[in-house]
Design brief:
332 residues; alpha/beta; 10-stranded parallel sheet; 12 helices; binds S-adenosylmethionine; globular; binds iron/sulfur cluster; binds 6-(5-methyl-2-OXO-imidazolidin-4-yl)-hexanoic acid
Length: 332
Amino acid sequence: MAIATETRSEIIEAPQINDIRYDWTRAEVAALFEMPFNDLIFRAQTTHRRYFDPNQVQMSTLLSVKTGGCIEDCAYCPQSARYETGVRAEKLMAVGAVLTEARRAKDAGATRYCMGAAWRSPKDHDLDGICAMIEGVRELGMETCVTLGMLTEKQTARLRDAGLDYYNHNIDTSEEYYGKIITTRTYQDRLETLALVRDAGINVCCGGIVGMGEARDDRVGMLLTLANFPEHPESVPINMLVRVAGTPVESTPDLDPFEFIRMIAAARIMMPASVVRLSAGRETMSDEVQALCFLAGANSIFVGPKLLTTDNPERDRDNKLFDQLGIAPMPA
Ligand code: SAM
Ligand code: DTB
Ligand code: SF4
């Protein structure tokens, strides 16, 4: 049945101004997911254009500075010591080696360097090396982001003082589905670290993963949590699960790509001024799906052949796609 014209324009045009809100209801978010696809994408793209250049995408590069051997049981993660995934446990990298990689990423056009460590939480002495990495990457003129697990207040202060721009700590999924994915730390633990990061004055990078067998209502719930924080995360990574052999979620059925695009569009509408990151999962995504993600408001990607331990598209493929779409890298 066709929707009446007035209803259609209400849906599309309703929040034209003051669209940065922190009071989303579950029903409103569920209604976004149920919109006709074209209406949803139109509204997301309209919102996107009020805050960003629609033809620019931010480029970050990731490096795993401490790989594998993690004591946590995150069901998606190749770095958990509990699963046989073929990822070997390594020590924290030397600062010089990290800076060599960062320089290479900068030369290849990345403006943000993101360093990840497979820790439940860092020890205080681990931060000596991490802070030196942050200082070194900043001296190269790149923005810095780290993801190290749970933090204490003292640790957030040290990271801020080292000049850290962003801290990535994901809620991963809805509060309701969370217990199916991780049992070794709670949703509340995550919220506490996020609050400490925010209070320290560091930009928050927080999102999650879809395609882990969750229901649409869980995707709605995850976005509700993110958009109803006292401040929106400045950066919102939406990861498509990379199914890694040996992890408990390795046989999860494919998520409908249109549902993934809806997730990006809903994130864009709910957090209009945040950078929405099309994160893990691009390696197996068609160029057409990626183009629809950009149309839906995604404006950041990871570039370089590796994420942390899994594959990411080669630069030639990304450069070609940017050319085909007339997309330029977002300046820092
Ligand atoms: N150990 C730290 C932590 O868990 O907070 C930092 C690194 S952890 C690998 C960073 C994030 O990567 C996770 O929260 C998760 O959202 C994402 N991630 C890990 N494995 C993934 C996979 N197989 N597919 C998609 N995203 C994944
Ligand atoms: C995020 O949300 N996605 C990135 C980054 N933050 C650290 C990590 C994706 C990891 C994918 C699995 C891997 O390569 O190990
Ligand atoms: Fe460890 Fe982070 Fe992987 Fe969880 S996501 S197992 S905490 S490295």
